[in-house]
Protein backbone atom coordinates (compact mmCIF):
# COMPACT_ATOMS: atom_id res chain seq x y z
CA UNK A 1 0.00 0.00 0.00
CA UNK A 2 2.95 2.38 0.19
CA UNK A 3 2.28 5.15 -2.31
CA UNK A 4 -1.41 4.24 -2.59
CA UNK A 5 -2.65 6.73 0.01
CA UNK A 6 -3.33 9.47 -2.52
CA UNK A 7 -5.46 7.06 -4.53
CA UNK A 8 -7.63 6.27 -1.52
CA UNK A 9 -7.98 9.52 0.48
CA UNK A 10 -5.96 12.40 -0.95
CA UNK A 11 -4.02 14.23 1.74
CA UNK A 12 -4.28 11.43 4.32
CA UNK A 13 -1.18 10.75 6.42
CA UNK A 14 -0.73 7.18 5.21
CA UNK A 15 -1.91 3.61 5.05
CA UNK A 16 -0.96 0.31 6.60
CA UNK A 17 -0.32 -2.96 4.82
CA UNK A 18 -3.14 -5.45 4.62
CA UNK A 19 -2.53 -8.96 5.97
CA UNK A 20 -5.07 -11.02 4.04
CA UNK A 21 -4.17 -14.36 5.66
CA UNK A 22 -5.23 -12.87 9.02
CA UNK A 23 -8.23 -11.00 7.63
CA UNK A 24 -6.65 -7.63 8.44
CA UNK A 25 -7.46 -4.94 5.84
CA UNK A 26 -5.34 -1.97 4.88
CA UNK A 27 -6.10 1.04 7.09
CA UNK A 28 -6.09 4.73 6.10
CA UNK A 29 -4.84 7.13 8.79
CA UNK A 30 -5.13 10.94 8.74
CA UNK A 31 -3.96 13.78 10.95
CA UNK A 32 -6.63 15.44 12.98
CA UNK A 33 -5.96 16.92 16.39
CA UNK A 34 -8.37 19.75 15.52
CA UNK A 35 -10.40 18.01 12.84
CA UNK A 36 -9.73 15.82 9.84
CA UNK A 37 -6.90 16.97 7.56
CA UNK A 38 -7.10 15.92 3.92
CA UNK A 39 -6.45 17.66 0.60
CA UNK A 40 -9.32 19.96 -0.36
CA UNK A 41 -8.75 19.40 -4.08
CA UNK A 42 -8.25 16.16 -5.98
CA UNK A 43 -6.76 15.46 -9.38
CA UNK A 44 -9.31 15.26 -12.18
CA UNK A 45 -12.06 16.51 -9.86
CA UNK A 46 -13.42 20.07 -9.87
CA UNK A 47 -15.06 19.70 -6.44
CA UNK A 48 -13.57 21.11 -3.26
CA UNK A 49 -13.69 18.88 -0.17
CA UNK A 50 -14.05 20.75 3.10
CA UNK A 51 -13.51 19.58 6.67
CA UNK A 52 -14.37 21.39 9.86
CA UNK A 53 -11.60 23.16 11.78
CA UNK A 54 -12.61 22.52 15.39
CA UNK A 55 -11.21 24.39 18.41
CA UNK A 56 -7.98 22.85 19.69
CA UNK A 57 -8.05 20.39 22.59
CA UNK A 58 -6.69 22.83 25.16
CA UNK A 59 -9.53 25.25 24.50
CA UNK A 60 -12.16 22.50 24.60
CA UNK A 61 -10.81 21.15 27.89
CA UNK A 62 -10.83 24.58 29.47
CA UNK A 63 -14.63 24.68 29.12
CA UNK A 64 -15.11 21.68 31.44
CA UNK A 65 -18.16 20.96 29.26
CA UNK A 66 -18.31 17.18 28.82
CA UNK A 67 -21.30 17.38 26.46
CA UNK A 68 -19.52 19.89 24.22
CA UNK A 69 -16.36 17.77 23.95
CA UNK A 70 -18.48 14.69 23.28
CA UNK A 71 -20.33 16.53 20.48
CA UNK A 72 -17.06 17.65 18.88
CA UNK A 73 -15.75 14.08 19.00
CA UNK A 74 -18.89 12.75 17.32
CA UNK A 75 -18.72 15.43 14.62
CA UNK A 76 -15.05 14.62 13.94
CA UNK A 77 -15.93 10.93 13.76
CA UNK A 78 -18.68 11.61 11.24
CA UNK A 79 -16.30 13.47 8.94
CA UNK A 80 -13.69 10.73 9.26
CA UNK A 81 -16.29 8.14 8.30
CA UNK A 82 -17.66 10.23 5.42
CA UNK A 83 -14.24 10.72 3.81
CA UNK A 84 -13.19 7.07 4.15
CA UNK A 85 -10.50 7.43 6.80
CA UNK A 86 -10.20 4.56 9.27
CA UNK A 87 -8.14 6.14 12.06
CA UNK A 88 -7.84 9.79 13.10
CA UNK A 89 -4.43 10.63 14.58
CA UNK A 90 -5.76 12.82 17.34
CA UNK A 91 -6.50 14.05 19.85
CA UNK A 92 -3.15 13.58 21.50
CA UNK A 93 -2.61 12.62 25.09
CA UNK A 94 0.26 14.33 26.84
CA UNK A 95 0.72 16.95 29.47
CA UNK A 96 2.17 20.37 28.73
CA UNK A 97 5.57 19.76 30.28
CA UNK A 98 7.21 22.55 28.36
CA UNK A 99 5.45 25.69 27.10
CA UNK A 100 7.74 25.69 24.06
CA UNK A 101 6.46 22.34 22.81
CA UNK A 102 5.09 22.90 19.32
CA UNK A 103 2.39 20.27 19.74
CA UNK A 104 0.79 21.44 22.99
CA UNK A 105 -2.30 22.56 21.08
CA UNK A 106 -3.04 18.88 20.39
CA UNK A 107 -3.33 17.98 24.06
CA UNK A 108 -6.28 18.66 26.31
CA UNK A 109 -4.52 19.86 29.42
CA UNK A 110 -1.50 19.84 31.66
CA UNK A 111 -3.88 18.58 34.33
CA UNK A 112 -4.13 14.75 34.18
CA UNK A 113 -7.65 14.84 35.62
CA UNK A 114 -8.96 16.97 32.76
CA UNK A 115 -7.06 14.99 30.12
CA UNK A 116 -8.34 11.70 31.48
CA UNK A 117 -11.89 13.01 31.70
CA UNK A 118 -11.95 14.02 28.02
CA UNK A 119 -10.11 11.01 26.62
CA UNK A 120 -12.48 8.46 28.08
CA UNK A 121 -15.47 10.00 26.26
Which key terms come to mind for this protein?
single chain, 121 residues, two-stranded antiparallel ribbon, 30% helix
Topology:
Elements: H1 5-8, E1 14-15, E2 28-31, E3 41-42, E4 45-48, H2 57-62, H3 66-83, E5 87-89, H4 112-119
Parallel strand pairs: 2-5
Antiparallel strand pairs: 1-2, 3-4
Could you explain the architecture of this structure?
- The protein has 121 residues and is α+β, with helices and mostly antiparallel strands.
- The strands form two sheets. The protein has a three-stranded mixed sheet.
- It is built from four helices and five strands, in the order αββββααβα.
- The mean pLDDT is 84.
- The radius of gyration is 16 Å and the shape is globular.
- The longest helix has 18 residues, at 66-83.
Give a short overview.
This protein is of the alpha+beta class and 121 residues long. It has helices at residues 5-8, 57-62, 66-83, 112-119, and strands at residues 14-15, 28-31, 41-42, 45-48, 87-89.
- Treating each run of at least 4 consecutive H or I residues as one helix, how many helices? 4
Oligomeric description of these chains: single chain
SSE order in H/E notation? HEEEEHHEH
Query: Given the C-alpha coordinates, what overall shape results?
Result: globular
> Which residues sit in consecutive blocks of at least 5 with pLDDT less than 50?
none
Whole-Å distance between the termini? Answer: 32 Å
Counting helices, strands and paired strands, the structural category is alpha+beta
Mean pLDDT: 84
Rg over CA atoms, rounded to whole Å, is 16 Å
Strand order of the largest sheet: 1-2-5
Q: What fraction of the residues are assigned to beta strands by DSSP?
A: 5-15%
